[in-house]
Amino acid sequence: MTTSLTTHKATAKLVGWIADQLHTPNDVWRQSLAFGAPGIALLHLELAAAELRPWQRAHNWLTFAASGPLTTGRDCHLFYGAPAMAHVLACADTVRPGVYADALALLDRAVAAEALRCAALACSRADRGEVAAVREFDTLRGLAGLGSHLLRRDLQGEAIRQVLAALVRVSQPLIIDGEQRPGWWAVEGPREKLDPHGFPGGHANLGMAHGIGGPLALLALAARQGVTVDGQLDAIGRITTVLDRWQCDTGGGLAWPYWITVADHRAGSRDDTEPQRLAWCYGTAGLARAQQLAALATGDPARRSMAESALADALTTPGRLAATDGPTLCHGFTGLALLALRAAEDAEPASAERLQAALPALLEATAAAGLDNPRQAPALLEGAAGIALAAHAAATGRPPRTEWDTCLLIA
């Protein structure tokens, strides 16, 4: 057990309380994995798999989520519409195999079709030498997110290969205003809007949620499962070379910025990487896990050691967690705990011990952050469902039984 008995019991109580508060479908977004019913269904599926809460609750939430048409085509992505429901039903299939087989097969085909469409658009854009849009390739709305489902459900299919090939293209440098910049340079700012004041000339996003961290993780996870396309390992190398350029030493471990601006790119350095909020979605913690996966995929022991130390340092060095101020999965303590758990699975023994030792403090910080009413914020990424899911995994010291966290590209 990776946590003290007291912490384990307190966390189990919190998880159960959240699940009981969210026992019945209510007025939430029906199709949103990030903010609605599918994400809440994941919590009940995971607890049903552990025989801690009844299966019927999960089924009720799934029925609610599927009670109307599901969005497909250009307006869907892993966290909304048909792909979101496909992910949740794939998790349900681990608990009750075959129960939703027909629906899942239909949704798998919809995800593959959308992935093929998006991959073709990305390659066509790259052929024209145009800059990317963040939603083309990222985890939350882009190819990396769709690829996470394909890697789980269609490992030998054409769609995953086309997604990987498109991400190889995304990794290739672009010439913009006579300068060579990372191939995922986006003309808009991090909020996916043109921002001539804050981000004149756009930016290169390094995050796991909205940046190149997600594609890096997918390329690595696919390679570890034996799924490769031409140039895939080279693409991993190009991305990690960019990350190497922008890493800095905080005095308490290595860190990476959220993004690179035109001014940063021209200066060749920046000195404000820390303090930043440590989180899955942006910055050091998520990128450390992505680089650990990359190192495992390419057989790079030096990068593996560096990434594992960077994550352990970030989670245990006094002061590094000061900017993290909430319990959520996306950008809070439970997300960090889940990262530590997953990274420890793959880490060298000494690093694994350090990562596991960080878990009690992260769970205690979750409890200290407080949660008044799960129904006010029931969401997966920024609410109660995600807090309960990640805290449950961290407290038990075992990865999710349903593998629900594959949508985060950390496993």
How is this structure best described in words?
- The chain is mainly α and 411 residues long.
- 54% of the residues lie in helices and 4% in strands.
- It has helices at 5-21, 37-49, 55-65, 82-95, 101-127, 134-137, 143-153, 158-171, 213-224, 232-246, 262-267, 284-298, 301-316, 333-346, 349-357, 359-369, 384-396; strands at residues 174-176, 179-181, 203-205, 248-249, 254-255, 259-261.
- The strands form three sheets. It has a two-stranded antiparallel ribbon with strand order 1-2. It has a two-stranded antiparallel ribbon with strand order 3-6.
- A hairpin with a 2-residue loop joins strand 1 and strand 2.
- 55% of the residues are buried.
What's the pLDDT, averaged over the residues?
A: 94
Number of helices: 17
Query: Main beta sheet, described?
Result: 2 strands, antiparallel
The tally of beta strands, per DSSP, is: 6
Percentage of residues in helical conformation: 40-55%
Strand content: under 5%
What is the 3D form? Answer: globular
Biggest sheet, strands in spatial order?
Answer: 1-2
Cα(first) to Cα(last) distance is: 21 Å
Poorly predicted runs:
none
Order of helices and strands: HHHHHHHHEEEHHEEEHHHHHHH
- Kindly provide the radius of gyration, computed on alpha-carbon positions and rounded to a whole number of angstroms: 20 Å
Q: Label the structural class.
A: mainly alpha
Query: What assembly state would you assign to the polypeptide chains in this entry?
Result: single chain
Q: Could you list some keywords that capture this structure?
A:
two-stranded antiparallel sheet; 411 residues; 54% helix
